Amino acid sequence: MGTNGKHRTHLVWDWNGTLLDDNIAVVGATNAAFGEIGLAPITLEQYREMYCIPIPRFYERLMGRLPTEAEWERMDGVFHRSYTEQREACGLTEGAAELLAQWQLAGRSQSLLSMYGHEHLVPVVRGYGIERHFVRVDGRTGPSGGSKAQHMERHFAALDGISPEYTVVIGDAVDDAVAAAHVGAKAVLFTGGSHSRSSLEAAGVPVVDTLAEAAALAQQLSE
User: Which residues of the chain have pLDDT under 70?
Assistant: First the structure.
């Protein structure tokens, strides 16, 4: 299909833990949120083994119970404040900027869909100097903690003329694969983010260790 140029692979990139190497900030912010209600800190390894969507369920795994609504609001607020402070020290994942530029130079399209709040996401992406590589940048609107599936639906509704059938979602979470399947797109999952390889493999889609492998595989999958 790819040879006539009519159906070139479109990529939908995830942001946190995929293009942005922010694991340390995420775990640090999680531990700040836990400290808020007297829970012990966790390591990156524990985080990657236990992490799941929705976030209150992740907290339940670690607390032994679901947080109350008041606890969730406090933890969520502390998490976002702490993350914002720590993110400034984070860089893009190795090779990400070059990959985005190469994909665009090859005449293919790509977009960014994140569960990071939209009003925070756009200036952050701009700050890393990569906004120009995307036909669209969408962050989460509405409350945090849910699934990406509905956001993916809205993302495609706004991506003019791009078919999910020729799209591959690249992310670091099982939820990225769920959101891709929800709209009829394919997915490739990257081990450098919030999930361990074993938990990613449960999604039943290809799992890779570098973004370069992810992009190469995406091209094969949909052309």
Answer: 1-6, 223
Strand partners of residue 13: 112, 170
Beta bridge partners of 20: 16, 92
Closest CA to 69 of 104, 24, 37, 114: 37
Residue 54, preceding peptide bond in cis (omega within 30° of 0): yes
Whole-angstrom distance, CA of residue 204 vs CA of residue 195: 14
d(C-alpha 5, C-alpha 175), whole Å: 30
Instruction: Report pTM.
Output: 0.90
Give 3-50 pLDDT, tens digit per residue. 444 578 999 999 999 999 999 999 999 999 999 999 999 999 999 888
Tokens found for residue 70: 């008041």
- Tokens, residue 150: 């509905």
For the chain, report the end-to-end CA distance as a whole number of angstroms: 5
